[in-house]
Design brief:
Length: 210
Protein backbone atom coordinates (compact mmCIF):
# COMPACT_ATOMS: atom_id res chain seq x y z
CA UNK A 1 0.00 0.00 0.00
CA UNK A 2 1.36 3.44 -0.98
CA UNK A 3 2.17 5.73 1.95
CA UNK A 4 0.06 8.87 2.11
CA UNK A 5 1.54 12.36 2.46
CA UNK A 6 -0.67 14.91 4.18
CA UNK A 7 -0.61 18.51 2.99
CA UNK A 8 -1.99 21.96 3.76
CA UNK A 9 -2.37 24.49 0.92
CA UNK A 10 -1.82 28.19 1.66
CA UNK A 11 -2.70 30.83 -0.94
CA UNK A 12 -4.44 34.17 -0.60
CA UNK A 13 -6.55 33.66 -3.74
CA UNK A 14 -9.51 31.45 -2.94
CA UNK A 15 -10.01 30.02 -6.42
CA UNK A 16 -6.35 29.08 -6.69
CA UNK A 17 -6.00 27.43 -3.29
CA UNK A 18 -9.27 25.53 -3.68
CA UNK A 19 -8.31 24.53 -7.21
CA UNK A 20 -4.93 23.24 -6.06
CA UNK A 21 -6.51 21.40 -3.15
CA UNK A 22 -9.12 19.80 -5.42
CA UNK A 23 -6.51 18.66 -7.94
CA UNK A 24 -4.26 17.24 -5.22
CA UNK A 25 -7.19 15.37 -3.67
CA UNK A 26 -7.43 13.38 -6.91
CA UNK A 27 -3.76 12.34 -6.81
CA UNK A 28 -2.72 9.01 -5.27
CA UNK A 29 -0.61 9.18 -2.14
CA UNK A 30 -1.66 12.73 -1.19
CA UNK A 31 -4.24 13.76 1.40
CA UNK A 32 -5.28 17.41 1.73
CA UNK A 33 -5.94 18.32 5.37
CA UNK A 34 -7.04 21.90 4.80
CA UNK A 35 -6.36 25.28 3.22
CA UNK A 36 -5.29 28.68 4.53
CA UNK A 37 -5.67 32.20 3.11
CA UNK A 38 -2.44 33.71 4.51
CA UNK A 39 0.74 32.90 6.36
CA UNK A 40 -0.58 33.25 9.90
CA UNK A 41 -3.56 31.03 9.13
CA UNK A 42 -1.19 28.49 7.56
CA UNK A 43 0.98 28.44 10.67
CA UNK A 44 -2.04 27.98 12.95
CA UNK A 45 -3.46 25.22 10.75
CA UNK A 46 -0.11 23.44 10.46
CA UNK A 47 0.37 23.48 14.23
CA UNK A 48 -3.15 22.13 14.69
CA UNK A 49 -3.20 19.44 11.99
CA UNK A 50 0.55 18.61 11.77
CA UNK A 51 0.68 17.98 8.00
CA UNK A 52 3.73 16.38 6.42
CA UNK A 53 4.09 19.25 3.94
CA UNK A 54 2.72 22.80 3.65
CA UNK A 55 2.43 24.30 0.17
CA UNK A 56 2.99 28.01 0.68
CA UNK A 57 2.54 30.95 -1.66
CA UNK A 58 5.24 33.60 -1.31
CA UNK A 59 3.23 36.82 -1.34
CA UNK A 60 0.16 36.94 0.89
CA UNK A 61 -1.42 39.71 3.01
CA UNK A 62 -0.45 39.93 6.64
CA UNK A 63 2.19 37.29 7.31
CA UNK A 64 3.66 36.30 3.96
CA UNK A 65 4.79 32.82 2.97
CA UNK A 66 8.45 33.46 3.72
CA UNK A 67 7.77 34.49 7.31
CA UNK A 68 5.40 31.54 7.72
CA UNK A 69 8.03 29.15 6.35
CA UNK A 70 10.53 30.45 8.88
CA UNK A 71 7.99 30.01 11.68
CA UNK A 72 7.39 26.39 10.67
CA UNK A 73 10.94 25.37 9.81
CA UNK A 74 11.32 23.14 12.88
CA UNK A 75 7.73 21.88 12.75
CA UNK A 76 7.09 20.61 9.24
CA UNK A 77 8.38 20.75 5.68
CA UNK A 78 7.36 23.83 3.70
CA UNK A 79 7.46 24.07 -0.09
CA UNK A 80 6.94 27.41 -1.78
CA UNK A 81 4.42 27.29 -4.65
CA UNK A 82 4.28 30.60 -6.45
CA UNK A 83 4.34 32.50 -9.73
CA UNK A 84 7.39 34.51 -8.62
CA UNK A 85 10.84 33.17 -9.48
CA UNK A 86 12.78 36.33 -8.60
CA UNK A 87 16.28 35.73 -7.22
CA UNK A 88 15.49 37.59 -4.01
CA UNK A 89 12.44 35.42 -3.26
CA UNK A 90 14.39 32.23 -3.97
CA UNK A 91 17.23 33.28 -1.65
CA UNK A 92 14.80 34.34 1.08
CA UNK A 93 12.94 31.01 0.81
CA UNK A 94 16.17 29.06 1.19
CA UNK A 95 17.14 31.21 4.13
CA UNK A 96 13.70 30.61 5.71
CA UNK A 97 14.29 26.87 5.56
CA UNK A 98 11.92 25.99 2.71
CA UNK A 99 12.29 22.46 1.33
CA UNK A 100 11.52 23.47 -2.22
CA UNK A 101 10.52 26.26 -4.55
CA UNK A 102 8.01 25.38 -7.26
CA UNK A 103 6.20 27.45 -9.86
CA UNK A 104 2.46 27.19 -10.36
CA UNK A 105 2.69 26.18 -14.01
CA UNK A 106 3.57 22.55 -13.28
CA UNK A 107 0.98 19.73 -13.76
CA UNK A 108 -0.91 18.35 -10.77
CA UNK A 109 0.78 14.95 -11.14
CA UNK A 110 4.22 16.55 -10.89
CA UNK A 111 3.15 18.68 -7.95
CA UNK A 112 1.88 15.58 -6.13
CA UNK A 113 5.15 13.77 -6.85
CA UNK A 114 7.12 16.75 -5.55
CA UNK A 115 5.09 16.77 -2.34
CA UNK A 116 5.78 13.08 -1.75
CA UNK A 117 9.49 13.53 -2.46
CA UNK A 118 9.72 16.54 -0.13
CA UNK A 119 8.11 14.46 2.60
CA UNK A 120 10.77 11.82 1.96
CA UNK A 121 13.47 14.44 2.51
CA UNK A 122 14.31 15.35 -1.09
CA UNK A 123 13.99 19.10 -1.67
CA UNK A 124 12.14 20.05 -4.83
CA UNK A 125 12.79 22.94 -7.23
CA UNK A 126 11.33 23.86 -10.58
CA UNK A 127 13.85 23.51 -13.39
CA UNK A 128 14.20 27.26 -13.94
CA UNK A 129 14.62 27.85 -10.21
CA UNK A 130 17.28 25.13 -9.96
CA UNK A 131 19.23 26.80 -12.74
CA UNK A 132 19.00 30.16 -10.97
CA UNK A 133 20.17 28.68 -7.65
CA UNK A 134 23.18 27.05 -9.31
CA UNK A 135 24.02 30.30 -11.08
CA UNK A 136 23.83 32.25 -7.84
CA UNK A 137 26.01 29.77 -5.97
CA UNK A 138 28.60 29.77 -8.74
CA UNK A 139 28.65 33.56 -9.14
CA UNK A 140 32.16 34.80 -8.30
CA UNK A 141 32.87 37.71 -6.01
CA UNK A 142 35.97 39.83 -5.98
CA UNK A 143 35.91 40.45 -2.24
CA UNK A 144 38.83 39.33 -0.07
CA UNK A 145 38.30 36.46 2.37
CA UNK A 146 38.01 38.75 5.38
CA UNK A 147 35.72 41.12 3.48
CA UNK A 148 35.74 44.90 3.11
CA UNK A 149 34.92 47.26 5.93
CA UNK A 150 31.31 48.40 5.96
CA UNK A 151 29.72 51.12 8.02
CA UNK A 152 27.18 50.16 10.66
CA UNK A 153 24.32 51.27 8.39
CA UNK A 154 25.75 49.39 5.40
CA UNK A 155 26.05 46.26 7.52
CA UNK A 156 22.39 46.61 8.51
CA UNK A 157 21.44 47.03 4.85
CA UNK A 158 23.44 43.94 3.89
CA UNK A 159 21.80 41.79 6.56
CA UNK A 160 18.35 42.86 5.37
CA UNK A 161 19.31 42.24 1.74
CA UNK A 162 20.14 38.66 2.71
CA UNK A 163 16.56 38.14 3.90
CA UNK A 164 15.23 39.13 0.48
CA UNK A 165 13.80 42.42 1.75
CA UNK A 166 12.90 45.03 -0.87
CA UNK A 167 14.10 48.63 -0.68
CA UNK A 168 10.70 49.65 0.67
CA UNK A 169 10.83 46.97 3.39
CA UNK A 170 14.37 47.96 4.33
CA UNK A 171 13.33 51.60 4.50
CA UNK A 172 10.47 50.73 6.85
CA UNK A 173 12.71 48.56 9.03
CA UNK A 174 15.38 51.24 9.40
CA UNK A 175 13.05 54.27 9.40
CA UNK A 176 14.75 55.92 6.44
CA UNK A 177 13.64 56.89 2.94
CA UNK A 178 13.77 54.55 -0.04
CA UNK A 179 16.17 56.98 -1.70
CA UNK A 180 18.56 56.62 1.24
CA UNK A 181 18.29 52.83 1.01
CA UNK A 182 19.09 52.89 -2.72
CA UNK A 183 22.20 54.97 -2.05
CA UNK A 184 23.35 52.59 0.69
CA UNK A 185 22.67 49.54 -1.48
CA UNK A 186 24.80 51.02 -4.27
CA UNK A 187 27.58 51.69 -1.77
CA UNK A 188 27.38 48.12 -0.42
CA UNK A 189 27.61 46.63 -3.91
CA UNK A 190 30.63 48.78 -4.70
CA UNK A 191 32.43 47.94 -1.45
CA UNK A 192 31.78 44.20 -1.85
CA UNK A 193 32.77 44.22 -5.51
CA UNK A 194 29.56 42.46 -6.60
CA UNK A 195 27.30 43.33 -9.50
CA UNK A 196 23.85 43.07 -7.91
CA UNK A 197 21.92 42.64 -4.67
CA UNK A 198 21.58 38.90 -5.25
CA UNK A 199 25.33 38.42 -5.07
CA UNK A 200 25.43 40.70 -2.03
CA UNK A 201 22.84 38.49 -0.32
CA UNK A 202 24.84 35.36 -1.16
CA UNK A 203 27.98 37.06 0.21
CA UNK A 204 26.19 37.74 3.50
CA UNK A 205 24.72 34.25 3.78
CA UNK A 206 28.04 32.57 2.98
CA UNK A 207 29.75 34.52 5.77
CA UNK A 208 27.01 34.11 8.35
CA UNK A 209 26.22 37.83 8.37
CA UNK A 210 22.46 37.38 8.00
Amino acid sequence: MTATTSVVVADDQRLIREGIASLLALQPGVRVLGTAENGSAAVDLALELTPDVVLMDVRMPGMDGLAAAAALRDRTKVMMLTTFDDDEYVIAALHAGAHGYLLKDLPATELAAAIRLAHAGIDQYSATVSARVLRMLRAPTSSPADGPTLTKRESEILRLLATGASNREIARALYVSEGTVKNHVSSVLTRLGVRDRTQAAIYALDRGLA
